[in-house]
Each structure stands twice: as structure tokens, then as C-alpha cells.
Design brief:
With 159 residues, the protein is an alpha+beta fold. It has 6 helices and 4 strands, in the order αααβαββαβα. Helix 2 (18-25) crosses helix 3 (29-42). This is Lrp/AsnC family transcriptional regulator.
Length: 159
Amino acid sequence: MKDRELIEVLKQDGRISWTNAARTLGLSRIAVQKRVEALRASGRIVGFTVILDEPSDQHGSARAFLRIRFGRGNDCFRLSRRFGSDRIVEGLWAVTGDWDAVMLVNAPSLKIISDFRELIVASGGIDEIETEAVLDELRSRTPATTSLDFKATKERSDS
């Protein structure tokens, strides 16, 4: 079973029954249940959450930068595996300086960002998180393709 496919099904509906997930993936209920248990035990899935239909903040959405300092035994790759594919994560970067990583999040409300921040803290291995809410977007542009993205795209098109 491809874990990515299972995770995508769970991201669409975290409350889906094992039977319905199994039907979607063409697997047995027991296979799905055991795989989810293994993903939770390994730390790849750290929890399930509810996304509420709350009124948006003043400009329709809330954005924030989370500056993260890791504790012993944690790193950017682990953080990325656990939270990088969450729908509110717009970007995650390993950085130099006083912080280890910077994450850009975008959600319908600051409350959702706050809850997500607490989920990161609860996952363990985080010494400190500083949250900087974006008050006003003065200028933004679509992120440029990196040389690694270009190389991967070229390799796929060459095959």
C-alpha cells in the first residue's frame, strides 16, 4: 500500500471509516487499520483535527510565519514529514541564524493557526516557536521555481 494515497484519503476526511477508506484504496479494512496504526506509531501521523467553518478574519484569511527552534532529536526533515503536507502550510524552510526553520501558514482564522501551532508543540521536539502574524500584505509574488524543482521536472519530462 502506498502510504501517500492513504494519507491523502485521510486528509480529505479524517473521520472516514476504515471500511470506506479500504473501499477507496482497493484494500481490506484490516490492512488500512494496521497501516494507520503503523503510521501513528512511527510519528508520521501525529493526530487528526477538525476544521471548523469559522468566519474569516478581516481580509478573508490569516497568515503567519512560525519561527521554530528544535529540541534534541528533532530536525527540519521530521517537521516536514509530520506537518509539511498540511493544507494550511504554504512553505517550510530550513534557515540559518537563531532559528532552525521558518514555516508560512495560511488559514481562515488566527484561531486555526493558533491550534495548528499548539499541535506542532504537542508533537514534541520543539524548544520554542515564535509566531508573527501578517498584518498587511504589501507585496507578494509566486515563488520562483528552484533549480532542484527544475531538475526534477526535466527528469520527469525526459523519461
